[in-house]
Amino acid sequence: MKNNVLLISKNQLLFEQLKTRMDLTQYTLTQTNVSDIMQKSFLLSPFYIFVDLDDLSEQMIQVIKTINDLDFIPVLYIGELSSAKRMAHSLENELILSVNEFILQSNLLLKQGLQFKNQYDKVSQAYDTMDALSTDTKSIMAHYLEHDTTMPAKLYNDIINSIFMDNPLLNNKPQYIWILIKNKDLYRAHLYDRARPNDQYVHKNICEVPINHSFGFNVFAENGFKVNMFESHLSDIDSTSKTLPEEMLNQMPAIENFAGYGLDQIVVIGCNYTEFVSSYETSILKSATVTLDLLENIQTKIAEVEGAFNYTLDALARAAEASDDSTGQHIRRVNEYSKFIAMALGLESNFVKEISNSAQMHDVGKIYVDHNILRKKGPLSEDEFQEMKLHTIYGERIVGASDYLKMASEIALNHHEKFDGSGYPNHKRGEEIPLSARIVSLADIYDALRSPRSYKPGFSHEEAYNIIVNGDGRVEPHHFDPNILEVFKNNHLVFKKIFERESL
């Protein structure tokens, strides 16, 4: 691609003189006037603007300043100094050459201008990329907090593509990107690759890199590093230093250059850039690393809070089940059944995660029920049964109205409702019953049938399956959401495995 130069002049002779001095295989000179400067500048993206002093006006100077406010372009004023005196106040900081001086120095000036513009573009691309990343932090944060924490590679993939591929202003992009996460005495290294220049990055592989074999990321990473293997440009690491760990080199066909940045727990490295690497590439990787490190730290703190919160839920659920199941195995199994059903229904990962923690709260209201009723070996009287049914209402009160516990609250209240409307406490039917409660209803009944209680023995899997699918008078198939019942029919052996695994 040729490099465009813009000449603002009405003088055709000057235009021809300049053309004869330029290497037209490398540069393209376009002549324009003041009325077309903005349009030509936008269309051609010149790296240099030459201005004929004989045509200079205050309007032209203001237009040029406007252009440079948007995208700085070097400007050279050509003509006799006497022509510039009338606007000396506007040109006191500008470069002015006579036509003869310019013709003598034109090749050097063009080379210098092109070099400056290339470096300026690199700076602009780096800052635009960092600015875009900062601007998108809110959406990146929201996306991160919603993602499945068991699949960090996908989130890293999304962030990499938002930095490098969704930014049309960035030209120098790496073929490969490594994200290394420190884990004790290892780095867990994620490799991302793009098949063609305009393709999105795709997660390719994971390898483990011993920290003591990693060429000293802890030394170089904190200040950033860059290496040009086959270029005359300066590198931060001398040619005798080890380039990258063997575990990483084995994943790439060749290594031409690379740049990176790291913090205590994360190192991000770009390899095989289309052009030589410089401090600008390191700056972009620094922004990426800082963003990822921030997100990882937030996720760690959230996980700690969630862990403590879920531990509290588990303790409360165990207390509620103490009369029936002192081991807590029932609530663990109901969580697992419910999680499996939600996954089999193709529900969102957030729903799956939430129900796997909230299902255990289904009988929390039993804390308020007389333990003599809970432990009674024979059938309950009508009054006792009415008291037992109140555990659904008690459960909703205990859980409360917190948005964070909304699913746990609706499960506690509604898990004894039946799809045909014959359940309690409010005789809801069909989709009036929250989906979470419809799921837990089947999970709870399957485990209740399997589990020995003070008033009954535990049934085998085959007996429990037959009761749920064919009915026995107390439990009937029309009590369940048909889609959930279908999941049970098709996957009942999974329920059997969960019961056996969580009963050990």
UniProtKB/TrEMBL annotation:
InterPro entries: Cyclic_di-GMP/3'3'-cGAMP_PDE, HD/PDEase_dom, HD_GYP_dom. Transmembrane segments: none annotated. Residues 305-504 form the HD-GYP domain. Pfam families: HD_5. This is HD-GYP domain-containing protein. The lineage of its organism: Bacteria, Bacillati, Bacillota, Clostridia, Eubacteriales.
